[in-house]
Amino acid sequence: MKILNLYAGIGGNRKLWGDEHEITAVELNESIAKIYQDFFPNDTVIVADAHQYLLDHFKEFDFIWSSPPCPTHSSLGKMRALSDNVQTGAHLAKPKYADMTLYQEIIFLKHFFKGDWLVENVIPYYEPLIPSVKIGRHYYWSSSMWLPSFKQAPDNIEAGTRAEWEEKFGFDLSPYSGIRKDTTLRNCVNPGMGLYLLNKITGAIPPIQEGLFERNNK
User: Fold this and answer.
1) Beta-ladder partners of 122
2) Global pTM?
3) What pairing do the DSSP bridges indicate for beta strands 138-142 and 133-135?
4) 126 exposed, middle or buried (CB, 10 Å; 0-12, 13-18, 19+)?
5) Which domain holds residue 173?
6) Mean pLDDT across the stretch 38-45?
7) Using CA atoms, how far apart are residues 30 and 63, in angstroms rounded to an integer?
8) Could you give the 3-state DSSP secondary structure of residue 35?
9) DSSP one-letter string for 62-101
10) In a 3-state reduction of DSSP, which class is residue 193?
11) How far is CA 116 from CA 1, 158, 170, in A?
């Protein structure tokens, strides 16, 4: 299967996909793209604007995963923009328009892409403009009408040390410099979730991932 992994970061979502797929990762930050390539040497890594790359190349793939920029949608971003806390520097944050790249891509994939797809983002400070599925601390939009809502095992983005997050997600960032390692790790999609969603959407039989999910029957 040919997979396009947009806004790839260091590859949290891709971590457990294995090497049986032909994967193209697009990441704008050259330093982050280099780390991704080190972790996944068999993938094709492209340093480019993922939003434009999607528009130009979507027909070449069977499955597309997109994780557009999330800061302008997050509750934390809103809180910082409204804060006057000088000690934390939050008073320097300015309100910004929500980046509509997110919804542009959902609409585009839904109407123009014939394969399977998924778009991931943070839980926003507003009601999503397009209905989505909530899993853990993320919202997901997808081509699959069978993607269920789940309670995920607690995943507190503010808790834990860098070493704990490296162990949890299986990424050792100690050889690298020039990046915000804590933020990079905590922004990763849980690798187990990445595998589960790929299998769920594409129809593969998901492996047993004990303790990762609990069905939300509420």
Assistant:
1) 138
2) 0.86
3) antiparallel
4) exposed
5) 2-215
6) 98
7) 24
8) helix
9) SEEEE----GGGBHHHHHHHH---TTTTGGG-------TH
10) helix
11) 11, 32, 27
Q: For the chain, what is the domain count? A: 1
Give the burial class of 57: count Cβ atoms within 10 A of its Cβ; 0-12 exposed, 13-18 middle, 19 or more buried: middle
CA 77 to centroid of chain Cα atoms: 17
| Residue of 72, 57, 1, 71 lying closest to 26 (CA atoms) | 57
Lowest mean pLDDT among 9-23, 66-80, 106-120, 162-176: 66-80
The structure tokens listed for 218 are 């509420």
CB 215, CB 153: distance < 8 Å: no
Q: Where residue 148 sits, what CATH number does that domain have? A: 3.40.50
Whole-number average pLDDT of the chain:
85
Buried b vs exposed e over 133-168: b needs ≥16 C-beta within 10 Å? bebbebbbbbbbeebeebebeeeeeeebeeeebbee
The closest alpha carbon to 26, from 60, 62, 65, belongs to 65
* Max Cα distance, the chain (Å): 51
List all residues 6 or more positions away from 180 whose beta carbon is below 8 Å from its beta carbon: none
Tokens of 56: 């130009």
Q: Which residues pair with 213 in a beta bridge?
A: 152
Closest CA to 132 of 95, 102, 161: 102
